Amino acid sequence: MKCNILNIEGELEYSTGLMLQKSALYNIKDNDAYDTLILLRHTPTITLGYFAKNQNILAPNNFLMKRGIQVHRTDRGGDVTYHGPGQLICYPIIDTQRKQLREYKSKLCQSLIDLLQKYNIKAEEGHKKLSGLWVGDKKIAAIGYALKKIQAREGTKTITMHGFALNVLDEMENFCHINPCGMSGIKLTNMEQILGKQIGFKELKENYVKAFVKVFNYEIDE
Questions:
Q1: Of 43, 44, 90, 157, most Cβ neighbours within 10 A?
Q2: Rounded to the nearest 5 degrees, what angle is found at the Cα of 126, between the Cα atoms of 14 and 16?
Q3: Comparing C-alpha atoms, which of 97, 72, 80 is closest to residue 160?
Q4: What sign does the dihedral 152-154-155-156 (CA atoms) show?
């Protein structure tokens, strides 16, 4: 099975990233297109998951606006998280009739674990019943996805949206404006902090694509 790779350079507003996801979804619906992996970096944004509580945003809206931080409520799972230029954001848009739905989350986590292993970072899925990827007791990646049921020509399809945000650069100051996962006191980390050196996004994206297609058993259609 082939997979389109959509690699976006520079920083993208969250709303534009959402439009790209929907475009890929409707390509599967209307044109039976290949699944798509979208890789990008967002401008500073706080997103709330489907059941997230507003009080987990700790700063008032006018303060966030002055700092150039947008706020969006989304239909993904999970609670409150932050997206910014220091993260690798990945959105797999996958027809789960082609891939086993029950295996989707574990495979998504495994692809990230394999990526980090290449940099000699040992990460694990979950920590004390908290979601995401963790290095010891520190969270390095947030994971939240949604399943969209759509009516296509050949019947109903269930397609994934959203995905994960991996903390890459040591730019964590905006996380102080939220309770990550909806809980206070959560420790966070990033690749640069762990490795003590700069990480290039071009190479990181290339390495993630390799990990993703291997775990999900795709061929690349670039």
A1: 90
A2: 10
A3: 97
A4: negative
What is this structure's pTM? 0.94
Distances (CA, A) of 172 to 85, 121, 130, 151, 185: 10, 19, 20, 41, 14
Cβ-contact 135, 194 below 8 angstroms = yes
Tell me the domains of the chain and their CATH numbers. Answer: 2-221 (3.30.930.10)
The torsion angle over the Cα atoms of residues 162, 164, 167 and 172, rounded to 10 degrees, is 50
C-beta separation of 114 from 214 below 8 A: yes
Judge contact between 189 and 138, C-beta under 8 A. Answer: yes
Catalytic residues: 181
Report the candidate in 105, 93, 116 with the shortest Cα–Cα distance to residue 24. Answer: 93
